[in-house]
Structures are given as structure tokens and as C-alpha cells.
Amino acid sequence: MIKFISTQKLKLITALLVYTGGLVSAQQAVTVLPDITTYITTPVVEQRQVITKEEIEKLHADSISDILTAEGISIKANGGYGMQSSVYIRGFSGKNIKIYLDGIEMNSAQNGSFDITSIDPDSIEKIEIVRSAFTEDTAEDGAVGGSIYITTVKNSKKHQIGIKTEGKSYFNKDQPVDTGTTAINYTGKLGKAATIKVNGKAVYAQNKYSYTSSVDDSQNTMSNNKVIDGTAAASYTTFFGNGNNLTVSDSFFKGNKDTPGSEIYPSVGNQKDLNNVLSAKIIMPSIQNKWYTSLTTAWLSNNQTYTDSSSNSEHKLNTFSANGKAAYYNNDILIPSLGFSFSENNLDSTDCGTNSRFTGFLKGSVTYRPLKTFSIIIPVSTAFCKSSDKFTTAIVPKLGIKLDLSTIKILLDGYRLYNFPTMNDLYYSDNYYLMYGDTNLEPEDGWGGEITADINNRYVPCSISLFSNYYFNKIAWIYNDSTWATTAENIGSVFYAGGTIRAKTYPCSFLTLSVEYDYLFSRILEDGKSFSEEKEMAYTPEHTLFITADISVKKVSFVTTLNIVGSRYTDDGNTTKLDPYALVNVAAEMHSCSWVTPYIKIGNLLNQSYEQTHYYPMPGLSATLGAKFKIEWK
């Protein structure tokens, strides 16, 4: 995305030159293809954590889950590679955490989640994390708990081919090489004003790892857990004057996974996924050197089939979405912008029937900068949803204030929390497992705020954030002892409060040390009771600590991550707690020459027995050997 710089008057960066069909006169500059970096404009008030391509490559991650975990994001997984996993930010997960891929919302309208294993980590240019419901961008609707923006690798003006191959072992004598991965990508210039990018990845994982049972402490080997999946993607970008460009892309994912069930309900199942995302985006960054405009349209097809000994379900979800933005940059004092986003969702499901849902947001934002050190931004959106012949609408206001001094930057955000029910919440019906949605559910609602201080200390720059969210009409699936049924209900109010301390320092020339500590207090509230008498939200640990050490010595670099996750309840009734755990991962790579990078990764170095989801044991010690090859030419 184009970034803007404030001088005496806010100006658009003028490095993007007009393509003239190859005819260049003496007064005209030679056509230069601009780099595609990120679709997100530079934030004014929003607190955003950025994970760069260089940091991602050093981790040699199996999936985006590994990347997010290394950067302080909690994950709740149901086992090894390919198994269901959820992202947790400040106690929120699923539909409350929006995930965007190149500007397209990927969350399923059916269940609110997104399978982040379906994206190849090597195809990512940048990941940006927002840890609150405050979002500035008018083209996106944001989320209650936070947003994760994923930008794929930029198209190169040189021809590049990259190949990756690796094998993983869990030191199982019967299966010495458990997982094999191969990936290939190509990008380059196509003609004078166009670029193309193609990539693909295939994974075969037996997931036969040893674990200690949480039921009887016996030593077991995971079985019936094989995963075979693959991704493929292609994009074409053409530039047609003054930086205006059009990108058309298509991405495909196919997965076949055996699901072993939990330790106490070990029903063996099989899940097949077939997903496709076709999109087109046009950006016009400099209309009369005053307007920035963009428009993105996408069609998402998600097909899933699940089979076990007692059931056979099929879900087909088709989503058409569009979002657009127009921002006026006539001066650096007052910047207005308008935007919209909407999605039409059509579901044909064994468990939910045939239903549709339409959601949308009309958004406006004003940024006011009376001083270089002081900014105010006011985003307001109108949210609407039509489902079950019921039309719901709400005004969602937000306010952000920034004070930017020489040694400290203070951000103050306030926002309304608002989220519509998913299609599962509304329509799910399963007579075998006695699980039922409710078409009369109310949208989740609430208010929240955050204050952040970014301290620019020359030795240890750090960021300190404190937040609080009061959330009512919270939707949860509740088990009823009298009916033996689990139903979707508005359970009442939930209160969240906590803080984050994040710091990055460079103790010496070859070491970068990053530390993050998160504290979270959560309570499900009922009238007339105090915080001490109420229940904690499930899977919300009070304390988490994340430490990353990046060491580069001559031609070798090491990245060590330590994740310490405190105890947390497995249900909203607070009947069972999971033990805390400490997870250590180490990745090392050698830069022997420019075209090949061999690497080794040790997962769960301490061979810790732990669970992120109750009765779903996670993998123990593992070792991965691999190499990346890169060839580049003009």
C-alpha cells in the first residue's frame, strides 16, 4: 500500500511513474514497477505488531500457528500438524478474531473460524496483529478481540524460483520420518508493466508421536492421525499509470485428515476440505494527488465433509464479499475517509440446512492532526445483518487519541464491541449429539478501552498496554443436565481486563532478545454477585510469557523461543483445569552460499507432555531437517 509523509503539507509519495506503453519521450521518466508491500496504510493511532518476512523465515514454521505462538499469541490446538486450532487474543477466539489474507476476510460465516494451516508460511511477506477492537481502516470491519492481517509475498521485478524440502521425525522406531514437506514458488516480471506469482506446497504427515496420557499417565503413541494436504496459488498484477494497479489472484487448498478424537472419546473420523479463493483488487493511489481509492471483490468456496462411525456430515459454504475505501489527502490536518464491506453467505449443510446470511458495514473515519505531536481519529460504522428473516443493525463508534513525544508515545482507544451470531449459532441441529442453535440469539455487544505507552528507551524500547472489556449477550454453547442437550445461548455478561508488556533489546551485536508478558483477568458475571464468586472464561490463562532469542554468528543463525502458558479452565463451569506448560523450540540455519540455506529445527526441546485442548495430547520432542533453494535472474 502507498504510504504518505507529512511535511508542510501531506503529499503522496511520487515514486510511482506512469506506464506509457513503452514509448518514453525526453521529458518522461522510464517506467518503473513499484514494489507491492502491504495493503494496509500506515496506522495513526492503532497499535500494530509486525512480523516481517525475515523473522518468519528464521522460524521455519510448519504453519502460521507456530509463527503466532513465537510472537506471543495463544493457540488452542487439538493435536499435531493439520489438526483443528484456534487463535486466542485477550480471551477471545474464533469469530471474535478476524483473519484477513491480502485484505480479504477469511473467517467462515458458518462457525467463525479459519483453518490457518491452509496457508503456506513461506508464501507470507508480513503478518500484522492488532490486539483490540479498535481498527482505523474503513475497508475492514475489525473484530471484538483483535485482527490478524496476512500479506503474501510481494511480486518481484526479477525472476525468482524458490524450493523447500524437509522431513520431520518424532523419533518413532516404526516411523523414523514422520512428516515430509515440499514447496515451490516462482515470481517475476511479465512484460513491461506486469508481474506474476505462482506457488504450491504439499505435506504428508503421519503424526505418530509419543505422549503421556493425562487419563492414566501411560505412555502411548498417537494413531489414526494422518494428514495429507496441499496448497496452490497464483496472482497477476498489472500497472496502468500513476501507480494504479490491478491484481487478480486465486488460491486453492485441499486437505484429507484422519481425526482420532479425544482420549476419552476416541472415535476415529475423517475430514476432507476443498477450499478456493478467487479475488480481484484495484488500487488507485493518486487521483489528482489527493485521493486514495481501492476496491476488492472475492468469491470464497469452502467445502467440508466429515465422516465417523456414527455420522456423515457435509457443509458447502459460498461467500461473495466486497470492500472498498476512499481517503482524501488534501492536507495533513484533516483526513476524511469512507468505506464499505459486505458479504453474502450461502450455506448448504447437513447440520444447518440451507440458509443464507447477509452482513455489511458502512464506515466513515476522520483523522484530525492539529499538532505534529497530537492526533485524533474517529471511526464510526453502521453494522447490519439479515438472517432468519431477521434484520439487525447497530452503530459502532470508536475513538483513538495519540500523543507522540520524543521519548514516549501514548495511545488511548475506546470502542464498542459488537458481533453477530454465526450460522452454526443460529441453525445448527444434531439429534445424535443433542446440539442445537437458536435463531432468536441476540448479537454480542459491549464496550472496551485501552491505553498504551510506547517507551523509546535507547537500550530497552518497550510497550506497556492496559485494557478492559465489558461484554454482554456473550454467545456460548451450554450443556443442560436435565435435557442432556447442548444449546447456543446468550449467557449474560463477561468482563475482561489485563495488560501486556512487550520489549525488544539488542544486548550485543549478534543477539536480539524479545520478551512479552500477558496478564488476563476474566469473569462470567451474574446479577448480584461479585467477581470472586463468578467463573472464569474457558481457555483463558491468567499468565503467559513469551521469550525469543535471535542469535546470528558469522554464517549461522539460531532462533530459540520459550512459551510459558499458565493453568486455565477447560469449560465455563470451571470444573477442570489444564496444567501449565513451558514449550521450547529451536531453529538454526546456515548461510553457506546465496542459493541454498540448510536448516534444522527442534520442537518441544524439553519433551514436555502438555495439552492445549482437554484430552488432546500435543506432540513431544521432534527434529526437522530441511533446505531452501533460491535461484534469481533478471
Outline:
The chain has 634 residues and is mainly β.
How would you characterize this protein structure?
This protein is mainly β and 634 residues long. The chain has a 22-stranded antiparallel beta barrel. A hairpin with a 3-residue loop joins β17 (269-287) and β18 (291-307). The chain is globular. Residues 1-40 have low confidence and may be disordered.
| Average predicted confidence as pLDDT | 87
Number of H- or I-type helical stretches? 3
* Shape label: globular
Structural class: mainly beta
Q: Low-confidence runs (pLDDT<50, min 5 residues)?
A: 1-40
End-to-end separation: 25 Å
Radius of gyration: 25 Å
What's the total count of β strands? 41
Tell me the major beta sheet: 22 strands, antiparallel, barrel
Strand content: over 45%
Bin the helical content.
Answer: under 10%
Give the helices and strands, then pairings.
Elements: E1 4-5, E2 11-12, E3 48-52, H1 53-59, H2 64-70, E4 74-77, E5 85-88, E6 97-101, E7 104-105, E8 124-130, E9 146-152, E10 159-169, E11 179-189, E12 194-205, E13 210-212, E14 219-221, E15 227-239, E16 245-259, E17 269-287, E18 291-307, E19 312-328, E20 334-349, E21 353-371, E22 374-387, E23 390-404, E24 408-419, H3 423-427, E25 429-430, E26 435-436, E27 444-455, E28 462-472, E29 475-480, E30 485-490, E31 493-508, E32 511-525, E33 543-553, E34 556-565, E35 568-569, E36 577-578, E37 581-590, E38 596-603, E39 611-613, E40 616-617, E41 622-633
Parallel strand pairs: 6-9, 26-30
Antiparallel strand pairs: 1-2, 3-8, 4-5, 6-7, 8-9, 10-11, 10-41, 11-12, 12-15, 13-14, 15-16, 16-17, 17-18, 18-19, 19-20, 20-21, 21-22, 22-23, 23-24, 24-27, 25-26, 27-28, 28-31, 29-30, 31-32, 32-33, 33-34, 34-37, 35-36, 37-38, 38-41, 39-40
